[in-house]
Amino acid sequence: MVAREFGQRLWRQGRLISYTDKSPIPPQHKNWFARVTAKQILWVPASSQIACALLFLLSGGTALGPILSMICVLTTAFLTSISVACKNRLKGERSSGHYRALERLKQIGVVSGVFWGAILGSAFVLNGTSHLAELSLLCVLLMLLGAAKYVSTPIVGAVHILSILLGSCAGLLVVGARTATVSAFILMLMGGTFYALIKSLNYNFVTRKLRSRALEEANETVEILLREFDEQGSDWLWEVDLEGLIVRPSARFHAAAEREISALARHPLIDLFGDGPDRDLLADRIREPEPFRRLVVSFTANGEQRWWSLSGRPSVNRYGEVIGLRGVATDVSQSKRAEAKIAHMAHYDGLTDLPNRALFSDTLKWTLERRRPEQLVSVLYLDLDRFKMINDTMGHDVGDFVLQVTAQRIAKCIGAGDMVARLGGDEFAIVVTSLQARGDVVDMALRIIDALAEPILLEGQQINSGTSIGIAFADSTDPNPQEMLKNADLALYDAKSRGGHIALVFLPQMYQAMLTRRLTESDLGSAILKNELELYYQPLVSIETNETMAYEALLRWNHPTRGQIQPSIFIPIAEETGLIVQIGEWVIRSALRELATWPEHLSVSVNLSPVQMRSPNIIPTIVNALASSGVSPSRVEIEITESVLMNDSEANLALLHKLKGLGLRVSLDDFGTGYSSLNYLRSFPFDKIKIDRCFVEEIAERKDCQAIIQAVVALATSLNMTTTAEGIENEGQLTRLKADGCDQAQGYFFSRPTPADQLGHKLLASEAHVKAA
To answer: Would residue 519 count as lying in a domain?
Structure first.
């Protein structure tokens, strides 16, 4: 491209080559071109010898012959010495020597042209019309030799030809003969032709030299790049013949394959790789040579699996015949391992290394699609009991350890064809295909329950957990994987609602119970707006005086179509959905508003759930209710259960202290049913302890119940706390509690929970009002 542009420019503008900074030859080629052109000096002595020999012959043995021969010999010697000197300078390494040699070439061309012109002019004058044709031919020959000698420097060639032409024509004009004049005219035409020839030859010379130089540089660059690529790059070249045999394996190929070059040469390329579809595809490409890109094949070297990415295309000889395949190979083992790691992370749980929910769903779907009619497929769904408490009280590191141990224990209980997965949190699911009877599946579930019930030891600390399991079987001919998992989840929910630590098989009525629960959840959201909620009150009676001291506010829901729904049904739903916060605020406002109508000696007790305790609005709600009702805070008692302190105990204790600071009384309900009851009494100064009904029910029959109640009463008395016994149903229980020193009692023996307008003091007030009227 460079040569072509330069040649066109030179031809179009008629510029002569000049070895200066303004030369149209690219700078990177100037030194090289000067060196190539300077070699033309070697033509000078040879052409001078030829001219001398011809001139001696043409002199015809006249007296002029020796003289002219001597002059030619001297000229030849002079020019030869100059040529040798220039040639010696060319042997130097500095580029300036090339340019000085070219300057000498220009001087030689000018001097030799003038000299030959003078000699030929003299020869024409001395010989007259004799030897006219021979001398004219010699003139033409000298101009032709000049055009050939100075093809690389056309300006020098032009001066050389012009000098010869002027000298010869001057001599012919001196002769004056008509033939001499005609010869002079012909010589001038030939001189113009030779000048044009110089220009044409110079263009071809420059173009050819530059194109050759560019091709040489390109070949050198390609050779260097290929050598660098093959020896130091991360990729390497490979080549096979039509039979698939490796040709000329490189050192990089040998290092990547970890085989000797001699063992690779003429070895089938396909034999390096392991069986697989990619290997078969490579064999097809070698058998029928076709281009291909990034074909990944695997092989084993020193017991380690690796992967190569091959790209190739057919190789041809100088005749265009396909002689094999050649291409580039890349070791992609690292990226393949990274891809495998990413794929593993996408389908496996990072903590337990069990399949995750996505892989579990895909596996269950695949299993059901390929299930034989007689094959039994079941899903077991489970989560851990008290896992949140373990996480919150002992830390997430301990919780993670429990999950890992749980995964290991489950894996030991299932069959080889089964799969256990961690769905998230403390939830696990199992696809069981190894058993043929439903009873065996239930037995497997019970083994898992027993295994997870065993304590976990961590640094000498014993961690107790457990589980319940829901089981669903693929009963239909076209079972749905999502439906099976949902059914197992419903069975798990039912198992946990029954106390846990059991395994239940899904039954259709569980689905109906789930629909009822959803309906309850939906209706509960609008129960407040529809004025369907109501507070009932149960009295707390002084055992000593048998007088009512306070009432506990108990929530009831009067559903328009289902009648009155028990709190044990809708309260858990309200807590799970968070509706308990809104409902609890309504209870506080309604209870304090009702309290404002009661006699001053009565107080009201309101229960707070753990969910309410986490609400940021609990303090503002109580303060606003106190302000709007106008009742004294000392007449309001807040009841909490031990479960409130088991979760986020520090935050909840801080909240209790704020309630205490408002002047409210705080009582601990269901005392003795938790795990750290005594610790809670030390953590917070409760005003009252409520003894759970489970101890009261059998106080007359069981000595241990009597001992527990006596201990609790004595403990409360020493801590200046009031004690209230729940679940009093007969006189014997009351008498026993009175003997043990219990302060208050609550239960059906005194009154069932009743609406506010049916409370004893209100009935008395109503009767007094009627009598007064």
So the answer is: no
